[in-house]
């Protein structure tokens, strides 16, 4: 199926890449414009997987037979001393940003992914829409998708009344190398999702693939959000 129509996707992170592949799959000509000049695989840390994610990756044509991450077999609730208050058996695959981003990015033809393109404004008209970039470049299509994050340039133009607001908390994130974790803690944590809920706080932690995608025991990372 070929529509001959062109879609401009502003934002080349996970949302933009998923949109790009799904639209290409139904015949659209797709170009993705990302403001950063860096490879985004180094951003982000842990991600949980679920059946819907596996289904959409398979629909796009991404190999999901290869492991997406580290398998955990239970959720545990810890007290302030690290003791287990409750354990619930529940299998889940815990992945990492790069483990999802990299195959999506690699599967998109390089000529359709444009880094270093910071959007300045959008100019819609009766024939379609034009994206105007900070470097003076212009791109025109029939459809534009804003996938440019919480501080979206597109949203700021068309919905200026919607602004980021402080949610009332701060989240600290960290990755620890599995090899740096004490053996006793490793035995408790590396096959489980751990939660701790002190008054007014929440800590979540789970094992993930290392930054280089390594999944072998002893070579993985441990993701922490407090």
Topology:
Blueprint: E1 6-10, H1 14-24, E2 29-33, E3 46-48, H2 51-60, E4 70-78, E5 84-96, H3 97-107, E6 113-114, E7 119-125, E8 128-133, E9 138-141, E10 143-146, H4 153-158, E11 173-177, H5 183-189, E12 192-196, E13 203-208, E14 221-225
Parallel strand pairs: 1-2, 1-10, 2-6, 4-12
Antiparallel strand pairs: 3-5, 4-5, 7-8, 8-9, 11-14, 12-13, 13-14
Question: Which terms would index this structure?
Answer:
226 residues; 14 strands; alpha/beta; FAD/NAD(P)-binding domain; D-Amino Acid Oxidase, Chain A, domain 2; elongated; 5 helices; 7-stranded mixed sheet
- Total beta strand runs: 14
Uncertain segments: none
**From the 3D coordinates, which CATH architecture of the domain at 71-92 and 167-225 would you assign?**
2-Layer Sandwich
Proportion of residues in helical segments: 10-25%
Which shape, going by the Cα principal axes? Answer: elongated
Chain-averaged pLDDT: 92
Instruction: Please list the strands of the largest sheet in the order they lie side by side.
Output: 3-5-4-12-13-14-11
What does this structure look like?
The protein has 226 residues and is of the alpha/beta class. Among the domains are: 6-38 and 115-158, FAD/NAD(P)-binding domain (3-Layer(bba) Sandwich), CATH 3.50.50.60; 71-92 and 167-225, D-Amino Acid Oxidase, Chain A, domain 2 (2-Layer Sandwich). Helix content is 20%, strand content 35%. The chain has five helices and 14 strands. Strands 3-5-4-12-13-14-11 form a seven-stranded mixed beta sheet. Helix 1 (14-24) packs parallel to helix 3. The longest helix has 11 residues, at 14-24. The chain is elongated and about 65 Å long. The chain starts with 5 loop residues before the first strand and ends with a strand.
């Amino acid at each position: 199926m070929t529509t001959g129509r062109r879609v401009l996707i502003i934002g080349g992170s996970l949302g933009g890449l998923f949109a790009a592949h799904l639209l290409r799959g139904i015949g659209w000509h797709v170009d993705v414009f990302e403001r950063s000049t860096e490879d985004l695989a180094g951003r982000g840390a842990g991600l949980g997987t679920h059946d819907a994610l596996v289904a959409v990756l398979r629909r796009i044509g991404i190999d999901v037979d290869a492991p997406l991450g580290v398998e955990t077999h239970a959720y545990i609730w810890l007290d302030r001393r690290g003791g287990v208050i409750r354990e619930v058996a529940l299998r889940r695959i815990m992945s990492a940003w790069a483990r999802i981003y990299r195959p999506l990015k690699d599967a998109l033809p390089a000529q359709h992914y444009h880094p270093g393109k910071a959007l300045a404004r959008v100019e819609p008209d009766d024939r379609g829409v034009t994206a105007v970039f900070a470097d003076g470049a212009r791109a025109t299509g029939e459809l534009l998708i804003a996938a440019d994050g919480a501080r979206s340039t597109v949203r700021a133009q068309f919905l200026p009344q919607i602004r980021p607001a402080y949610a009332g908390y701060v989240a600290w994130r960290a990755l620890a190398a599995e090899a740096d974790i004490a053996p006793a803690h490793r035995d408790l944590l590396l096959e489980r999702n751990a939660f701790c809920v002190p008054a007014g706080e929440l800590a979540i932690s789970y094992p993930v693939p290392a930054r280089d995608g390594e999944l072998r025991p002893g070579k993985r990372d441990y993701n922490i959000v407090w």
